[in-house]
Amino acid sequence: MPVATPDQYAEMLDRAKAGGFAYPAFNVSSSQTINSVLQGLTEAGSDGIIQVTTGGADYFAGHTVKARATGALAFARFATEVAKNYPITVALHTDHCPKDALAGFVEPLIAASEEEVKAGRNPIFQSHMWDGSAVPLAENIEIAKDLLPRMKNINAILEVEIGVVGGEEDGVQHEGSNDALYTTFADVDQAVQALGLGEQGRYIAALTFGNVHGVYKPGGVKLRPELLGEIQAEVAAKYNTGAKPLDLVFHGGSGSTDEEIALAVANGVIKMNIDTDTQYAYTRAIADYMFKNYDGVLKLRPVEELIPHDVDERCPSRTAGASLVSHGVLSAGRTAVSDGRGGSG
After folding, report:
1. Is residue 95 flagged as an active site residue?
2. pLDDT tens digit string along 194-240?
3. Which of 47, 58, 95, 131 is catalytic?
């Protein structure tokens, strides 16, 4: 099916909130990983989100070129075209964009969508993330407030991070105390006062509850998904809204237990990012293929003795893609608490 329109994306998020599930949001960095995610979502019977980071966009553009806006546009055009061949709906999103990358990544992408909308077409991306976790909270919110009207004008959604996700992802790294890994109601209240609750433009928020990017053993990180419910209740009480007024995002979920994911979703998470796990599923399969086919691929021998099939780069890529498909099916199932096209559950 075609990539989601703005209205369809808004309906997807509303459906997740009402149905008690979260959409898996997969980071990709190549045409192979895009196709694998689309196939995995199809086999899971799940709609979803495909997203690209600054580093992924650099890679799409050509790893020595570093033209990330160009790479992101290439990603979007490829994904938009191939998604038409799959019976699921996906939205396109740009992940973590720190302050020093705004001018070369998110801002030109918004400008490109503004031109599309002026011409009567849909925005290129359905949502963009501004990651202000490395700057003071007041500055983080001020930049978000500047971006939100532009996003509203192109009928797209802004993702903000209020708090700090630990670890490192594509150069965005937390180097402060662990206390910063837990968002407070005071932090969120400042954001709500500045950004509103949808009337100034729709946004989704990555509140942190001990999250850490990367791989860790279950129990190695102290997640407190109940904190999300506490903050939701305080916002609802202060602003006299219905239950769970905030649409939330779960970052740094690798290694989380099913129970932690379920509680986060129950407290308003509607989007769950999946990156490190998929990288491992892909690269581990390539390593496995190389070692299992040592004689054909790695063993030194004269060129005239090579068998073309053995050295065809598509063979390990297909194996890696199949591994990523299987991981995508599993990931979609883990985020689905009910069957609402958010997963196979």
Report:
1. yes
2. 999 999 999 999 999 988 755 555 555 688 999 999 999 999 999 99
3. 95
